[in-house]
Amino acid sequence: MNEAALTSQAPDIARAQADMRTAYWHAAFGVLSSALVWAVAAGVTALGQPQQAVWTLLIGGMFIFPLSMVMAKLAGRTGMHEKSNPLGRLAMLSTVGLLVGCALALGVATQKLEWFFPTMLLVIGLRYLVFTKVYGLCIYWSCGLALATAGLVLGLLLAAPSSELKAAGPLLGAATGAVIEALFGALLLRQGRARAR
User: Fold this and answer.
1) What are the pLDDT digits (tens) for 9-61?
2) d(CA 56, CA 63)
3) Where do the TM regions start and end (predicted)?
4) Alpha helices in the chain (DSSP H)
């Protein structure tokens, strides 16, 4: 593909990214909904039920997109991108990757329950790197890398944990996901509000 063809595609990609940002308010509501699911999972873990917290995160995750759509609509956005937007397909493909990652994390949990949340931090962090292209926002690099790094660090800590750290691992992992996503969700919400003015 020659340089002229690449240059002609750039405005199309920029328009597609703008459509995604406008429809979903930079995906801020999706990130905030995800933070809420992480927080509920942390709460379940704090009640001494880490196995149920695994299912809380997985089942709760199925409601993130519908909840974010409702929130976007309440905020005056469409909550749906244009059907012709090619980045919608990329976002869908990233969802397939997410589902595969969830299955992997569930498999890991059957062997070492404390590694489930670090694995999910990695999986979701890697998905957010795709959002850099989908939304055209560099903040998703920071969000994705923060989640993935937290997952790696927590995984390393839990590789040979003390009994206390092993017991606290699920709560630490779920709480970490909640805090990171709440922080970036708030930043995205603010960024979307600023661009809407």
Assistant:
1) 556 899 999 999 999 999 999 999 999 999 999 999 999 999 999 999 999 99
2) 11
3) 23-47, 53-75, 87-109, 115-131, 138-159, 171-189
4) 3-24, 28-46, 50-61, 64-74, 86-111, 116-135, 139-157, 163-196
